[in-house]
Give the backbone structure.
Amino acid sequence: MSGTAIRTAEVLVSSPGRNFVTLRVVTEDGVVGLGDATLNGRELSVASYLTDHVVPLLIGRDAHKIEDTWQFLYRSAYWRRGPVTMAAIAAVDVALWDIKAKIAGLPLYQLLGGASRNGLMAYGHASGRDLPELFDSIREHLDAGFRSIRVQTSVPGIDAVYGVAAQPSSSGRYDYEPAQRAPLPAEEDWDTRAYLRHIPQVFEAVRNEFGPELPLLHDGHHRMTPIQAARLGKDLEPYDLFWLEDCTPAENQDALRLVRHHTTTPLAIGEVFNTVWDYQTLIREQLIDYVRSAVTHTGGISALRRIFDYAAQYQIKSGIHGPTDISPVGMAAALHLDLAIHNFGIQEYMQHSATTYEVFTTSFTFEDGYLHPGDAPGLGVEHDDEAASRHPYQAAYLPFNRLKDGTVHDW
């Protein structure tokens, strides 16, 4: 076996504040590569897929053959696509890129063509149960260095709303981490008409308070029908959003035509997408402005780079998914890809807890609103096994919604 043949591949599951699944690949020469396989609320499904079905296929393969390995894992399974399969493939892909860049002695972005910019504009997550609390949250994010802000708020008459940090999270921080450590998912309520009445008033107040220059974003989180999404996009036009995200479930890609015909508010979508096929109509017909997929859930750096190259033909930009259920490994992979591609748009950045950074040490930085992956060889992320052992997996679920009459609704 050559020195770059894969000697071992190990699946690491830990919960330093929240659950993460990490793949560690080691070559015969002892070069280590890490990949993120975290699927929030369904972590063990990917861990099993990797351990039982993928790891045995990796031993002895040449770690340098990234594209061949990607195609082998995708096509040999026969049952293609889906979040579990694509997260597993992503973990392998990123780990192999990490190895290749370490062997080259270069930060990963150099192998992707080098830097196309000096830094990566990032947006933070501000939220509040009322306007004063929301304004305080926006100011805290501005003070922390963010220059672009996602705005989420409670809605009168709805007890719990996606995106609003109403209580301390499991890691002890006042931010929004919806996965709750519990044997069953929490039930939340929803009322679309109340939401549609309230949100434009919130953005009017935010613009009046913070002025016209601050880039503002909002996440609809798949909860509207196409005509409802069209109405919200039109109602928000006076407030000049950077984007309206996930305004309607997009399994039916044709639905975005209706939204697009009614509003000029920029549209971002795709955090639950897993392959280029999910985007085919959306990109070809220019029905969106930003691709929101994560490296972790879309087959890795190799696959997401292909999606961005396709999107670039239609002047569609990147907006990689980056909440804290993407591990620092997945986040670092996103930043290296961001830095290299030409059609970068913006990067979501939800900062991990101090406990998470005890397990994952990183080289990426955030300064004056901009992220940079750093110049350490490879991804620039290391995994501390001893620290991880202090934080075993704990079952956690995302919530779900019901309407007032009891109907299960998109959360």
